[in-house]
Amino acid sequence: MGQKPEYLLKTSPWLLCGIAYMSGQFFMLKYVVFYGMTRPFGLEDGIDDYPEHPKCIARIYSYSAMWRHFDRGLTFDKNGSLPQARPTHAKTYLGPIIREEYRNSLLWKFISSLISFSFVFIYHGTYKVIFIWSIMNLIAVSIESLGKWISKSVKYRQLLDATLSPRGQRRFYCICMTPLLLFSFLSNIYFFIGLKPGHIYISRILSMSIKHQMVLVFVLYSGIQSSVELERKEMFKLT
């Protein structure tokens, strides 16, 4: 599809979304092979915290989780440090690189995301398509950080507890995450397929009928709801 993007103009909405889904699955399998082949060598060298293979991309609905499970080396830890992959007996951290009182601020989260995606942009190549993809990732991660910051406020929690049951709160959370998942869906098209296919996907989705748009939103919402329930089930198993 990257070589013949005009074919995307002729496909049905179902096939259009199916191509995007399978592009993500193929990309995930590539990462599974890469991590699976190199992890035994890392463990043999004594690096016990060598990253495992990524989770299925179909059940990851947030940008922060996506980057934690795919490129963990680009994730700052809770202490504001950059972990350095070294043998277990010589484990060190590149940091902490910022004062403790600022580590949970929105500004620090934005700066850390900006640094990470700037590196990603340079690493993958300073192409226009990579720039667009990196900017979309930065925007989405920043919006997600802002949402988490708001959700931790006392007034927000009081309002939520007074109006919605725990089950209703989870559904409300899934509704809020649906636009970000759609944004992720579109940004990854640029990375998986190319610049022109990314433009075509955005124009096709915006020009879809209301019925098709509602079906797409419902499918994305259902996927998030299923993932949230799976996460709760996994947490109950650990406790």
Descriptive report:
With 239 residues, the protein is mainly α. It has one domain (13-238). It has 8 helices and 2 strands, in the order ααββαααααα. The protein has helices at 13-44, 63-70, 106-124, 128-151, 154-163, 166-192, 195-207, 210-238, and strands at 82-84, 92-94. It has a two-stranded antiparallel sheet with strand order 1-2. The radius of gyration is 20 Å and the shape is globular. Mean pLDDT is 81; it is low at 78-82 and 87-95.
Ranges with pLDDT <50 over ≥5 residues?
Answer: 78-82, 87-95
Order of helices and strands: HHEEHHHHHH
From the spread of the alpha carbons, the general shape counts as: globular
Taking the sheet with the most strands, its summary is:
2 strands, antiparallel
Give the N-terminus to C-terminus distance in angstroms: 46 Å
Give the strand content.
under 5%
Instruction: Give me the secondary-structure category.
Output: mainly alpha
Main-sheet strand order equals: 1-2
Any idea how many domains?
Answer: 1
Helices, by number, come to 8
Taking all Cα atoms into account, the compactness measure Rg is 20 Å
What's the mean pLDDT score?
A: 81
State the total count of DSSP E strands.
2
Question: What is the helical fraction, as a range of percent?
Answer: 55-70%
Give me a quick take on this structure.
With 239 residues, this protein is mainly alpha-helical. It has one domain. It has eight helices and two strands.
